[in-house]
Amino acid sequence: MAVTEAMEMSDTIKTSDLDKAFRDEVLTEPGAEKLILCFNCTGCTAGCPMAEHEPNYNIRQLLRMANLGMRDELLNHPYLWNCTTCYKCQERCPQGVPNVDILLKIRTIAVHNGIMLDNHRKVAQLMAKTGHAVPINDDSKEKRKTLGLNELPETVHNYPDALEEVHKIIAKTKFDKLTEDKT
Amino acid sequence: MSELSFFLGCIAPNRYPGIEKSTKIVMEELGVHLLELKGASCCPAPGVFRSFDKLTWLALASRNVVLSEEMGMDLLTVCNGCFGSLVDANNLLKEDEQLRNDVNNVLAEVGREFKGTIRVRHIMEYLYDEVGTEKVKESVKYPVDLKVAVHYGCHLIKPSKERHLGSIENPTFFDELVEATGAESVMYKDKNACCGAGGGVRTSALETALKLARAKLENAKAAGVDCIVDACPFCHLQMDVGQTEIAKKFGDVFDMPIVHYSQLLGLGMGYTPQELGIDMNYAKNDEFIAKIEKIAGGGK
Predict the structure, then answer these.
(1) Inter-chain contact B204–A117, Cβ cutoff 8 Å?
(2) Does the distance separating the beta carbons of A170 and B10 come in below 8 Å?
(3) How far is the C-alpha of B239 from the C-alpha of B236, rounded, in Å?
(4) Closest approach of chain A CAs to the CA of B186, in angstroms?
(5) Within an 8 Å CB–CB cutoff, is residue B101 touching chain A?
(6) pLDDT (tens digit, 0 to 9) for every residue of chain A, 183 residues total?
(7) Where along chain B do the CATH 1.20.1050.140 domains lie?
(8) Domain B2-123 maps to which CATH number in 3.30.450.40, 1.20.1050.140, 3.40.50.460, 3.60.9.10?
(9) Could you tell me if B158 lies within 8 Å of chain A, comparing CB atoms?
(10) Among the four A149, A178, B98, B292, which has the fewest Cβ within 10 Å?
(11) Do A153 and B54 touch (CB under 8 A)?
(12) Within an 8 Å CB–CB cutoff, is residue B35 touching chain A?
């Protein structure tokens, strides 16, 4: 039985199903060691703007799963990508747990294991190619001209050498390989 | 006259050029000369790109910071998301030698080096701390007679340990700057709530993201405001383009004008909504444009 199913059914989570190495990897994020101080007060989830509109999103539960080492369930969790990174829970945590930083670390582990949402892959590829997550379009070029601005902004859009720098940085960190289409 | 490099980011220049232009105009009027940060890229967006790969996020963010270091001046952004990436990356690299070495190893590929010599500034905290509300008030020749809902957004004030902007539960600096234009900042329900766009949520779960924006728009509308004022082009896009998407998906119509603080201040300085690009929003509201056209009386 999958661990999340077991949790929903209030069955026992078997320690043999847990991955301590995964938990240790999560805890390498600076400040993340405070996660072990979490006493499940639920202040994080109670104030979460996402939880208000999407009750299935539960930051406390996600971090609890990380603390237990529930690797596969967490990396494939359908709500792992629902945090807007508003940082409200991180500000309010009485134990000083950097909730958002930890969640982003879990996401990073997911992406580095090939688990990435299609639209995120697309925006990553767009940024890797153009240097902008939101590149210029014809409508905006027209608006710029109407306002008396140059058609292209003074960003990588107007400086091919600068875009080349972005490409070199991305090649060096292998971000292009990380976010390429799965074959 | 003070000088700052102007970091444009993506959404301001590529979707809301009125914000770019308004910022140049109002800062010049206030005696702050903005120089183009030539060849800057995406910040890159903190929620998505930091999620994907921290080193890439840091390397690209620090390259943008380094461009400003090379100009010998602090960097100004008009976007909460860009502020989030750039201020956090700048502080992290100043503090953590190992991380700085890792990033400089990447930047060496393009002949650059992070030195940690500048500050990253957001227009709201820069105006409040360096220019001052009094000077902003003096620059307003045509008091902006509007009731507005102030939207702080998230990354302007959080995480607070990197920001030092006072209370994150009840901040006031943005409201004070809005009132300096003559506008009234109206209290509304869940004023400090997130717009719903960040963290890659708008990109991957649009309908869910829009539920947060819809709550924001409902609460502002219930307070009877003329418009929402923000200081972030991504929140701006979420609440503006979002209105069209919300109408389509949920059937709710708000007709709520969304205005960036630079544009609001520009109105008070006597510029027209057309000069400031306020009429270029995706959600059209001719009634509001007609109302604010009367404020400046002809423009400059």
Answers:
(1) yes
(2) no
(3) 5
(4) 21
(5) no
(6) 455 655 565 668 888 889 999 999 999 999 999 999 999 999 999 999 999 999 999 999 999 999 999 999 999 999 999 999 999 999 999 999 999 999 999 999 999 999 999 999 999 999 999 999 999 999 999 999 999 999 999 999 999 999 999 999 999 999 999 999 987
(7) 2-123
(8) 1.20.1050.140
(9) yes
(10) B98
(11) no
(12) no
- Chain B residues touching residue A86 (CB < 8 angstroms): 154, 158, 194, 198-199
User: Residue B6: beta bridge partners?
Assistant: B36, B76
pLDDT of residue A1: 46
Average pLDDT, chain B: 96
Tokens of A119: 């639209």
- Closest Cα of chain A to B205: distance in Å? 8
Measured CA to CA, the distance from residue B226 to residue B205 in angstroms comes to 29
Task: Provide CATH 1.10.1060 ranges for chain A.
Answer: 3-112
pTM above 0.80, yes or no: yes
B137 is written with which tokens? 């008030």
Q: CB-CB: which of B38, B50, B208 is closest to A82?
A: B208
What's the angle, vertex CA A33, arms to CA A29 and CA A36, rounded to 5? 135
* Per-residue pLDDT at B89 exceeds 90: yes
Q: Are A173 and B56 in contact (CB < 8 Å)?
A: yes
Phi, psi of B53 (to 5 degrees): -160, 110
Name which of A87, A133, A155 is nearest B39 (Cβ-Cβ). Answer: A155
> What's the CATH number for B139-296?
3.40.50.11810
Nearest CA in chain B to A103: B51
CATH 2.60.40 assigned to domain A3-112? The reply is: no
Alpha carbons A152 and A136: distance in angstroms, whole number: 8
Site of tokens 């979002």: B242
3-class DSSP state of B32: strand
Distance CA B236, CA B228 (A): 9
B242 inside 8 A of chain A by CB: no
Residues of chain B with CATH 3.40.50.11810: 139-296
